[in-house]
């Protein structure tokens, strides 16, 4: 907590309000988890003023959501519902993790249940379950367990004991599944520990071998064969260094690959984009960005189902890989149906032609699947030595601009 306070204070002293917002957000969450409700409420209120001043949709979503949690902890259920409803107004324009939406629905259900509005509480829980079904995350089991337990509590409180018992049975099945997964993880950790011990043993044997070689070197020195001895030491040292470098490199590559790739499309994710942008900015290298999001993709999913929608996303990813220079340009799935292309060239020359190729390939693949077409919107953002936070805000604004154009088109229709 002290580090969070220090980061917030440094941001205020340097008058760096935008870059200080992530530290402020983390501080508010820590205060809420520590049940320092008065301090958490003041923290979220300060963050709300900044989000309104700079028109930041994500923080406009997070602020009332956090204030609603504070009101829920204070048992001010109607006040909490008002805050949660305010957060819902921004969930379609803010780029937020679906997990935040799941938590929001569950918190609304808790408030409605406390006010004995059982039907509304169950509606919110069912909304959360639908979000979990469409959300691909290793943490899905945990979110599902929390939501099922909440649903059982709501039903039990309303004296729907038979329905509550059925939901509890699903919850228990998930617990057992989690236990099996935990067991598998522990077995894997035990295996990794064994392999690490084996590696230590191999290193010890290598050290013993080196010790033996040192004895041999002494004999060579005694025989006045110093030149041969130095060559032997050099070869052994270089060989050992190469082996160590190879294993370290393989470990780093596997770690980066695991945390930086989107599991559905195989493209890089938003975290990887942040890291690359930071490096390019630090190295003073020119580049440009292209934002791309699918037009009315939610209606497409509702019409043909999420399995077809996922396949469309994979086909789009494959088309972009074929049309852009993947060894130089970086293609990122930012979230949902939103993508960002990082072009290492500061000019956007040739981008329109490649995007047109992507459009034609996607049209062909979609027609083969469902005899329909999926369109997308794009925007080019040029790097003019702005900071990382400003670039991220520009990306968010580009996606918001796409969303606003969709809304205007629907209103005209």
Automatic annotation (TrEMBL):
Domain of life: Bacteria
Secretion signal, residue range per the UniProt entry: none
SUPFAM superfamilies found in the cross-reference section: Nucleotide cyclase, TPR-like
Membrane-spanning ranges: 228-247
Gene3D superfamilies linked to this entry: 3.30.70.270, Tetratricopeptide repeat domain
Domain GGDEF span(s) in chain numbering: 285-413
Catalyzed chemical reaction(s): 2 GTP = 3',3'-c-di-GMP + 2 diphosphate
Keyword Transmembrane helix applies: yes
GO molecular function: diguanylate cyclase activity
Keyword Chloroplast recorded: no
Name this polypeptide is given: diguanylate cyclase
Species lineage: Bacteria, Pseudomonadati, Pseudomonadota, Gammaproteobacteria, Alteromonadales
């Amino acid at each position: 907590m002290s580090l969070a306070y220090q980061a917030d204070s440094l941001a205020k002293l340097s008058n760096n309000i935008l870059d200080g917002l992530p530290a402020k957000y983390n501080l508010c969450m820590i205060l809420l988890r520590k049940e320092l409700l008065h301090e958490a409420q003041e923290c979220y209120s300060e963050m709300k003023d900044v989000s309104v001043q700079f028109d930041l949709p994500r923080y406009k979503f997070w602020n009332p959501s956090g204030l609603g949690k504070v009101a829920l902890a204070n048992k001010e259920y109607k006040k909490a519902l008002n805050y949660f409803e305010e957060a819902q107004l921004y969930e379609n324009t803010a780029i937020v993790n679906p997990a935040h939406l799941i938590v929001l629905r569950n918190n609304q259900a808790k408030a409605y249940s406390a006010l004995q509005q059982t039907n509304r509480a169950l509606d919110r829980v069912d909304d959360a379950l639908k979000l979990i079904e469409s959300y691909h995350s290793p943490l899905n089991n945990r979110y599902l367990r929390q939501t099922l337990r909440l649903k059982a509590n709501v039903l039990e409180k309303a004296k729907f004991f038979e329905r509550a018992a059925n939901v509890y049975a699903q919850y228990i099945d998930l617990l057992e599944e989690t236990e099996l997964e935990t067991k598998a993880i522990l077995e894997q950790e035990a295996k990794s520990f064994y392999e690490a011990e084996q590696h230590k043993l191999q290193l010890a044997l290598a050290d013993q071998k080196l010790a033996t070689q040192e004895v041999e070197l002494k004999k060579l020195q005694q025989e006045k064969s110093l030149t041969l001895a130095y060559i032997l030491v050099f070869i052994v040292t270089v060989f050992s260094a190469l082996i160590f470098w190879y294993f370290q490199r393989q470990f780093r590559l596997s770690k980066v690959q695991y945390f930086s790739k989107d599991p559905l499309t195989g493209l890089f994710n938003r975290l990887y984009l942040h890291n690359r942008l930071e490096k390019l900015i630090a190295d003073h290298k020119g580049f440009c960005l292209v934002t791309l999001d699918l037009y009315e993709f939610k209606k497409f999913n509702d019409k043909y189902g999420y399995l077809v929608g996922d396949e469309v996303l994979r086909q789009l990813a494959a088309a972009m890989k074929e049309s852009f220079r993947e060894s130089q340009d970086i293609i990122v799935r930012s979230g949902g149906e939103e993508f960002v292309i990082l072009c290492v060239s500061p000019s956007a020359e040739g981008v329109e032609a490649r995007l047109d190729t992507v459009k034609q390939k996607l049209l062909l693949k979609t027609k083969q699947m469902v005899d329909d077409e999926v369109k997308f919107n794009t925007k080019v953002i040029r790097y003019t030595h702005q900071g990382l936070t400003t670039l991220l805000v520009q990306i968010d604004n580009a996606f918001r601009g796409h969303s606003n154009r969709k809304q205007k088109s629907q209103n005209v229709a």
